[in-house]
Amino acid sequence: MLCFALGYFQRGKAKAPHQVNPPKIITTKELKLQIKLALSHTDIIKRTHGNPSFKDFIFDNSNKIRTTRFMQIHTTRHLKIIQDILK
Predict the structure, then answer these.
(1) Is residue 27 part of a domain?
(2) Is residue 42 one of the residues assigned to a domain?
(3) What is the pTM of this model?
């Protein structure tokens, strides 16, 4: 996919799936739990042996390398959005 080659996602072109949308009211406690869960999932990916593949709802077949790259690109995108909000 082009976003992997370019290293970024264009803004405003995709909607997040409902499973990952934030709750209507965000509390510090819920945010800390979400961060803890995300770090836990990251650790699971790091510990996975070999290069297993799985079915992704957007990118079709994905693997450990591609998933890690997606996480890097996606995190960078969110950091840029935060920087824009803070300006």
Answers:
(1) no
(2) no
(3) 0.62
